[in-house]
Amino acid sequence: MSKIKTENNRDNRRDIELPPNAQSEAPVEAEEQTSAEKLLMASQPYWTQIILGVLVSILAWVIISYLTQASREAAAEPSRQLADAIQQFRITNNVDSLKQMKTDYPNEVATNWAMVVAGDYELNRGLRQFASDREEARRLIERAKETFQGIVDSPSTAKTTMQQRRSLYSLAYANESLGNFDAAKTLYQRVLDDAPDSIFVDSATRGLARASNPEFKKLYDDFASYKPASEDAPGVAVPEAPVIDFPEIDLPETDPVDNGMKSDDMKSTDEVAKPATDSAQNEADESENKSTEQESDEVNADEVMTDIDEAAQEAQEAAETVKEAVTE
Predict the structure, then answer these.
(1) Per the domain annotation, does 31 fall within a domain?
(2) What's the rounded Cα separation, in Å, for the pair 317 and 313?
(3) Are 178 and 167 in contact (CB under 8 A)?
(4) Tens digit of pLDDT for each residue in 51-97?
(5) Distances in Å between the alpha carbon of 292 and those of 39, 107, 288?
(6) Cα-flanking dihedrals φ and ψ of residue 263, to 5°?
């Protein structure tokens, strides 16, 4: 009987319908876990290389970021130096800070901007001093010429188009200001040929006409060779003030006293000074008496006016009394 029941139970379990994929899920999950474990076990010998590769990648990223940042800062440093140099130039009117950039940052666009500012300042200052101090003016214009020549000769990668055109025109103008008309004509013509559409075309055309004009050359030569006849102002010369040397006088430090009496010299001095003192005292007394008399006269006049006013008031009161009596 027990065997028959056992067989029946087995038949009943077979007849139970299982859900779809119920039999396949457990084996698949087991297979996946097994595959992951197999992959982990298979990669275990390479863990050291994998960790080193990750660390190398992180280090490479840090190095690249640092180099990029350093490169940006290095590229921005000339611009910061240019701003500081211009600020110092505005305060001191000295171009040494601008020209120092030529040594610190050669072949940089910012450096050539500093040179443009320095050259313009030296050229304009030299032109202003041409009439008062010709030697100093020529020295400043020569320095400006060298500055602009350095910009023109610098590599094309270290300057902009505006820097090239402006420096070329300024170099031509500096040569013209120094009387180098042949070099000025060549440079003015180069400005016209290199950039016929630039803003310097009109100025370069006028400069070329001046440098090619013989009358302008003659006028420049006359001006350059002119020397003032005299630096003294016209008119009668004013004589210098005379120098008078007064003799020194030795005066006693204390009053000399002999037996309670003054010396004869001091007595004579007192006698000479006494009349002047008495006269001054008399004048002061007379002035005081006059002022006193004037004040007394003013007081008397005030008293008289007061009396007159009182008399007039009494007369008016009497007239009113008489009028009232007549009325009654």
Answers:
(1) no
(2) 6
(3) no
(4) 888 888 888 888 888 887 777 777 778 889 899 999 999 999 899 99
(5) 136, 97, 6
(6) -70, 165
Q: How far apart are CA 149 and CA 190, in angstroms?
A: 14
Unique residue bearing structure tokens 């004869």: 264
Torsion angle defined by CA atoms of residues 49, 51, 57 and 62, in that order, rounded to the nearest 10 degrees: -140
Contact present, 280 and 288 (Cβ < 8 Å): no
From CA 22, how far away is CA 215, in angstroms rounded? 115
Distance from the Cα of residue 24 to its chain's centroid: 87
Domain region containing 96: 78-224
> What is the total count of domains within the chain?
1
Please indicate, yes or no, if residue 208 is contained in any of the structural domains: yes
Which residue blocks in 154-263 are alpha helix, DSSP H?
161-177, 181-194, 201-211, 214-225
> Tens digits of per-residue pLDDT, 142-188?
999 999 999 999 998 999 999 999 999 999 999 999 999 999 999 99
Residue 190 lies in a domain: yes
The segments of the chain whose pLDDT lies below 70 read 1-33, 228-239, 242, 244, 246, 251-328
- pLDDT at site 272: 45
Contact predicate 101/82, CB 8 Å: yes
Q: How far is 151 from 276, CA to CA, in rounded Å?
A: 88
DSSP label at residue 16: S
Q: What is the pTM of this model?
A: 0.53
Report how far Cα 250 is from the mean position of its chain's Cα atoms: 61
Residue with tokens 């000295």: 94
CATH code at 93? 1.25.40.10
* Residue 154 falls inside a structural domain: yes
